Amino acid sequence: MRVSTSKLQQLAIFTTVLTGGGVCTMYCLMQKKFVESDYHRLALQKLETCAAAMESLGAPPLKVHNIHLTDRMNRVEHHNAQMKIPVSGAKTGGYLYTFSTRDPHTKRWRLQQAVLQLRDGRRVDLLDPQTSESGQAGFTPLTTTHTFEQ
User: Fold this and answer.
1) CA distance linking residue 99 with residue 75, whole number of Å
2) What is the share, in percent, of the chain residues with pLDDT greater than 90?
3) Rounded to whole angstroms, how far apart are CA atoms 130 and 132?
4) How many Å apart are CA 101 and CA 78, to the nearest integer?
5) pLDDT tens digits for 71-107?
6) What is the three-class DSSP state of 59?
């Protein structure tokens, strides 16, 4: 049984389009799952209530970008969630580094660490804005309970 070249081309195109659509759908569903999660929501609420961080970004308006799914900083386990959330405002942008734990009894997430790292190297600790640092590149954890990997 011989199959024509045009039929094979059509099959290849159809398979490519179907696979691409599936990948895009999975990407969008994963991003949506992160955005709707409590550990993501708690971190952004903390950012929005920190006047020093919002002023540094030039927000409002605050723009929250999609997380990089392949970044090893973004890791969610049963009782821990570590995120690197890209954010930007009118002045500048940066990353919101967060670490949350889930209480095994209440099943509620609790924000343990939230640090805004701006593009110019300044850092704002959202849980204690008075300890913010300026001009220091790179991110180092502020607590000893968990370390962020880069």
Assistant:
1) 10
2) 39
3) 6
4) 9
5) 888 888 889 999 999 999 988 999 999 999 999 899 8
6) coil
Contact 114/43 with Cβ under 8 angstroms? yes
Amino acid occupying residue 110: R
Q: How far apart are CA 146 and CA 94, in angstroms?
A: 21
The structure tokens listed for 62 are 């605050």
5-36 and 38-49 helices cross at what angle (nearest 10)?
Answer: 60
Q: Which residues of 51-76 are buried (b: 16+ CB within 10 A; e: fewer)?
A: eebbebbebeebeeeebeeeeebbeb
Cβ atoms of 116 and 94 within 8 Å: the answer is yes
pLDDT at residue 31, as a whole number: 85
User: Which carries the bigger pLDDT value, residue 1 or residue 150?
Assistant: 1
Cβ atoms of residues 143 and 112 within 8 Å: yes
Tell me which DSSP letter residue 97 carries.
E
Q: Using an 8 Å Cβ cutoff, are 43 and 82 in contact? A: no
Determine the distance from the C-alpha atom of residue 63 to the mean position of all C-alpha atoms in its chain, rounded to a whole number. Answer: 12
